[in-house]
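> agent: user asked for a holo structure of the chain below bound to pyridoxal-5'-phosphate. Plan: (1) validate sequence alphabet, (2) canonicalize SMILES, (3) run complex prediction with ligand conditioning, (4) return tokens. Step 1... ok. Step 2... ok. Step 3 dispatched.
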Amino acid sequence: MERRAFFKGIAAAAAAAPLLPDVAAGLAERLGTLGQDVASASNERALWQRLRREFRLHPGLVHLNCGSIGATPRVVTDALTAYLAELEGNPLANTWGGLGNEMEIVRAKGAEFIGAELDEIALTRNTTEGMNHVASGLDLQPGDEVLTTNHEHGGGMVCWQHLARTRGVVVRYIKMPNPVRDAAQILQLVEDHLTPRTRVCSFCHIDTITGLQMPLAAIAALTRPRDILLVCDGAQAPGMLDVDVKALGVDTYASSSHKWMLAPKGTGLLYIRKEVQDRVRPVFTYSGYNVYSASSGTRNVPQIVAHGVAMEFHNTIGRPRIEARCRQLSTYARQRLAEIPQLTPITPTQRELSSGIVSFSLTSGSHSEVVAALQKHDIFLKPAQGTYAYVENAGVPKENYNAIRISTHIFNDETDIDRAVEALQQVLG
Ligand SMILES: Cc1ncc(COP(=O)(O)O)c(C=O)c1O
């Protein structure tokens, strides 16, 4: 079936679908009230306190690791439960019709959320899946080169190592400076590593170890004229930064919605720019020869439809406002943790190179012991160990940063950071 026809069919079915009137009305009312509360909050403090009540986090728990997994707001978990109950009332009708048709609406919301067009977006389970779709879908030949860094996460890197093993593709690694001085330094490193055989540059949007934001638009200005595919691992950005894939200039962008987008676990988005879709062959095929649709077999419909509610939640508060809050808390964390002499920040300070993640290297103690000790105080953050073992296996020296990473979202506030500082002071002596 032609791709265009396939999408038209789905859109028509979605338009005719019953929209579970009770659930839809309940959701619209709750999001409407939330929107009014956001608009009428007397000040920022009152606003964030109101929003904190939207989350189910245990009282007293300090969750400073949204970069690993987010907390999903009540309105989304309640929708998920309601959708599941509805689906199980008539599984057949709601998997391939009814509620199932709403997955197409979620795809449209996903496209809008990151600035893409509908037929550039697939609903995936996570970043790892999206990155593997792209890597396995490319027709790379022995000796073709993929340029990446020694700071990538396995979910964005092992897909390339698999191609090295199975197809003779050559993976080259930029050794990231630490700390990064400025964007020009990164651009120079990228340019220095390009060769006539470079076919792909694969970089994360936000560095999982340091929280560095890669200057993707400037990198795209190097790769696009050379016809090099710019592949981005966006696991750590949508829902934290107000992402616009067109402005970033990337060719593909894979993300996990269960992190900063606060969506149910096992949800993600994959963007493939229209102009490069003929270069990325589909991996999962079912009811259409493409990866950009619902053609990937039976899906978890309630979870995907609730993913759409998570995006509505963000849109109700405002994506720029959420980005500003994530950054504000991360700046506060940087300032407060700088009071502890055993901690040195390894995240750049420039706005364009930073994000809602800030990491610190430890001059004494081990990151895993420190993180475990903090958990005893009900405070959760992440040890940032440096280069992953699979890079080391590929012959690139492992760097151990012995660092801790703090990621802050709207379910956090300044008191969470104060508690972490107090506990760190105790633990580090
Ligand atoms: C940069 C980056 N890429 C990929 C992943 C993997 O994400 P997922 O397990 O949701 O595929 C992570 C997870 O932390 C990450 O930080």
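> agent: step 4 complete. Summary for user: The longest strand covers residues 400-407. The pocket of pyridoxal-5'-phosphate is lined by residues 68, 126-128, 153, 155-156, 204, 208, 233, 235-236, 256 (CB under 6 Å).
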